[in-house]
Design goal:
This protein has 239 residues and is mainly α. The protein has helices spanning 21-30, 47-61, 83-92, 104-107, 109-132, 138-154, 160-165, 177-182, 198-204, 213-216; strands at residues 2-6, 11-15, 36-39, 71-75, 95-99. The chain has one domain (2-237). The longest helix is centred in the middle third of the chain and has 24 residues, at 109-132.
């Protein structure tokens, strides 16, 4: 199993195939510096792998941490919300924003804006890659195809409008009516630019997952939850 991810977009592609160590070395040599490929016995992501991805992000973003505050958006699935992940985020200096449970399809920018473009690119170019490199190892062919999607789609478009449309901006003026209707809001409520309370966070958490307050605040500034205004974007969608 190979897993390929672009750490800048935090998007990963997994596919099942046989790949020798020698072949894997060839693949590694072709990778651009912002793509990471891991050879795995199984394709399922887990808490340990998620922590590894955060460590990679920390190394990549280290030169920019004195200028920007990185924020990672992830779905409310247990492996993303594990105590070990929260601790890893704190160590990396990365803040997090949880897409509320069962609302990924509506609010996660990757799902609402990026995936369709990625799939279109992969579908359009798949046959061309197959025909042009018929004697090339299938794993290498697939990775080259995904590298193309990374370069031409994930890095080829500006995504600020996707975040604005999904409500991750100060004014939320760009949020389309269908999101308001899906959330049963006549008008989106205005929230102060403060960190949401534990009660609001629980609305974003899976129902079968305990919210450990002393852990979930650890990735935030030392002053406490109120000093992290960036997380306020999650609150309108959890109520």
């Amino acid at each position: 199993m190979s897993q390929l991810s672009n750490p800048y977009s935090r998007k990963s592609f997994s596919f099942q195939t046989t790949c020798s160590r020698h072949r894997f070395s060839t693949i590694q040599a072709e990778l651009p510096n912002n793509v990471y490929v891991k050879r795995m016995p199984k394709g399922w992501n887990n808490t340990r792998e998620h922590c590894i991805i955060i460590r990679i992000l920390r190394m990549i973003l280290a030169p920019f941490l004195h200028i920007f505050q990185p924020i990672i958006l992830f779905d409310a699935v247990p492996l993303h919300l594990a105590d070990e992940v929260m601790t890893e985020l704190a160590t990396a200096g990365i803040w997090y924003l949880v897409i509320p449970s069962r609302l990924t399809w509506l609010l996660q920018p990757l799902d609402t804006h990026a995936f369709a473009k990625c799939k279109r690119y992969l579908k359009t170019n798949f046959q061309d890659h197959q025909a042009a490199a018929v004697y090339v190892n299938v794993t290498l062919r697939m990775i080259r195809l995904v590298l193309g999607a990374t370069r031409h789609v994930l890095q080829g478009f500006r995504w600020d409008s996707a975040f604005q449309a999904n409500g991750f901006s100060r004014s939320q003026r760009g949020v389309p009516s269908y999101i308001q209707e899906s959330l049963e809001f006549e008008a989106l409520p205005m929230y102060l630019p403060l960190c949401p309370t534990a009660e609001i966070m629980r609305l974003c958490w899976p129902r079968n997952r305990t919210l450990h307050e002393e852990i979930v605040w650890t990735p935030l500034p030392a002053d406490g939850p109120a000093a992290a205004p960036i997380m306020a974007a999650a609150s309108p969608f959890g109520s």
